[in-house]
Specification:
Helices cover 20% and strands 18% of the residues. It has helices at 5-23, 36-48, 227-231, 235-238, 252-263, 267-270, 395-421, 431-445, 455-458; strands at residues 64-66, 69-71, 90-92, 100-101, 115-117, 125-126, 139-141, 149-150, 163-165, 173-174, 187-189, 214-216, 241-242, 248-249, 277-279, 286-288, 307-310, 315-317, 327-331, 339-340, 347-349, 355-357, 366-373, 378-388, 468-469, 489-492, 501-504, 518-519. The chain has a nine-stranded mixed β-sheet, with no helix packed on it. Strands 17-24-23-19 form a four-stranded mixed β-sheet, with no helix packed on it. A hairpin with a 4-residue loop joins strand 23 and strand 24. Helix 1 (5-23) packs antiparallel against helix 2. It is found in: Membrane.
């Protein structure tokens, strides 16, 4: 047994010495032999150490030990062996029956352990202090177990953790603080669980894990995604977001999101294109999401948006690559290579690889190209820019326009109210004057003397009290200011069948009516 044989020999020698001391068979005389008994017991317990009460590590039968690797896989273990060597770097405990991972699973601190494999154990409980003695852990495999949730501060002790495998469990609840403090986590696998909420806090700006480049929540129970927030993420994060095989509801926004990712050749959209499905509302059928724009919902075609700007503005173009820390080179719309930030040119490359264009002019419109290079990927991005041939309206102009419109609307409303409610009273205020004005109006507009019926006489209806007045203009009626001469009225008899009409002289006709019958 590696690291345990010397201690076993010491323990055997100690027990033999204590036994001979108690019986008086030692080679030297001891005055009070009874005092040696508790001393021997304490010495034996000290030599036993953590081996008491648990199975010890056996690198010949129970486990396989190779240098700093200890493999105890498929050994039907129900508890983790004790007395693990301090130099252990890789510990494989997969395919056993370890249902719980308690805080005291290792009594000694394993500073050199960087890989711990605990998959396929039927594990349903993990203590929040289970990783206190393995602070250098970088790779943790907890996949294919029976975990149902991730409690608060579950992995806070693992400050060096880079890869965490939690797929094929029964996880339905993830506390928002479960991964707090795991600042170096790069890959998180949560597929094949029962998660119903997309953990946006892991990738969103200001709350995300700074190094996380792969998040797999595929084959869960997520029905909707925060599409607008996902659009704002940088491409190196979107390239590693996997959420296929979820019961999504068909939506054109989701289609546009994935279609644009496919145009950008992001791995998450290209590698699993045929595994993105959604459910239509009517009829209730499951279809492939990438078919929404062609056969089902007639979603609009997707293309990369054009960047718009105005004369005199400053514009910054992002080279949004699928990987981080790539070497970037920009070529302007005039086919010139952009210089560094120290240059005096209008287009310069910033320290983060973005292109800044100062004092935009109309000739700056066009397509800008970003060439990104790394050890494993070469990528070319195109950004189309359109500069409007005028300056952008200021906020003060917009305010003045809105203010003027508001004042006009209020003034119009006040005038309408004045017209409706503040006009002079016509009936009950001044009945005498109103009556006089009414009579003058009648005399000014028509002649109200009795007239002979016209065509009604032909029909035998002479009893009707109807009068038709015709007002004819006269050549010498101008300059009378619309007043009629009442003394100049005369009646002209008409022929049979035409009825009578009252005719005024030239000075009495100044009305605007001409040959217009008026029934009174």
């Amino acid at each position: 047994m590696v690291g345990s044989l010397p201690r076993s020999k010491e323990l055997f020698s100690t027990m033999q010495f204590c036994s001979s001391t108690a019986t008086g068979e030692t080679a030297f005389s001891i005055p009070k032999k009874s005092l040696w008994l508790p001393v021997c017991v304490l010495l034996s317990l000290t030599l036993l150490g953590p081996e008491v009460g648990g199975s010890t590590l056996d690198c010949h039968q129970t486990c396989i030990c190779a240098s700093n690797i200890v493999s105890c896989s498929k050994k039907e273990l129900e508890s983790i062996p004790t007395a693990l060597p301090r130099y252990t770097a890789v510990l494989d405990l997969s395919y056993n029956s370890l249902s719980k991972l308690r805080a005291e699973w290792t009594p000694v601190k394993l500073d050199k352990l960087h890989t711990l494999l605990l998959s396929h154990n039927g594990m349903s409980f993990i203590s929040s202090e289970a990783f206190s003695f393995v602070p250098r852990l970088r790779y943790l495999d907890l996949s294919s177990n029976q975990l149902q949730g991730l409690e608060e501060y579950q992995f806070t002790e693992l400050e060096e953790l880079e890869v965490l495998l939690l797929y094929n469990n029964r996880i339905s609840q993830i506390d928002r603080s479960a991964f707090e403090g795991v600042a170096k986590l790069q890959k998180l696998y949560l597929s094949q669980n029962q998660v119903s909420r997309f953990p946006l806090e892991l990738v969103k700006e200001k709350t995300r894990l700074p190094e996380l480049s792969l998040l797999d929540v595929s084959s869960n129970r997520v029905k909707s995604l925060p599409v607008q927030e996902l659009k704002l993420l940088p491409a190196w994060i979107k390239n590693g977001l996997y959420f296929h095989n979820n019961p999504f509801t068909c939506d054109c926004e989701l289609y546009s999101l994935l279609a644009l990712w496919h145009i950008r050749r992001l791995n998450s959209a290209v590698d699993f294109r045929d595994e993105y499905n959604c459910t239509l509302q009517s009829p209730k059928i499951s279809v492939r999401l990438f078919q929404l724009g062609e056969e089902y919902m007639n979603c609009s075609a997707v293309k990369e948006a054009e960047v718009e700007a105005y004369l005199g503005d400053s514009l910054t173009l992002e080279c949004d690559t699928r990987q981080r820390d790539m070497t970037k080179t920009w070529v302007t719309a005039s086919n010139e290579v952009a210089a560094s930030v120290r240059s005096n040119q209008s287009a310069v490359v910033l320290a983060n690889g973005s292109l800044q264009i100062r004092e935009l002019q109309a000739e700056d419109s066009g397509v800008y190209t970003c060439y990104a290079v790394s050890d494993s990927l070469n990528e070319t991005l195109y950004v189309s820019v359109r500069v409007h041939n005028f300056t952008m309206p200021g906020d003060s102009d917009s305010f003045n326009t809105a203010y003027t419109t508001l004042v006009g609307c209020v003034s119009s409303a006040i005038l309408v109210l004045i017209y409706l409610y503040l006009t002079p009273c016509r009936c009950f205020c001044c009945p005498g004057e109103e009556k006089l004005k009414h009579e003058d109006s009648i005399h000014s507009s028509m002649l109200s003397a009795s007239a002979t019926p016209t065509h009604d006489l032909l029909e035998g209806q002479a009893g009707l009290n109807r009068h038709v007045a015709f007002i004819e203009p006269s050549k010498d009626s101008q300059g009378q200011n619309g007043k009629l001469n009442r003394g100049s009225e005369e009646v002209q008899e008409g022929k049979r069948g035409k009825g009578q009409r009252r005719k005024s002289d030239g000075e009495s006709i100044s009305s605007v009516f001409s040959d217009t019958p008026i029934v009174v």
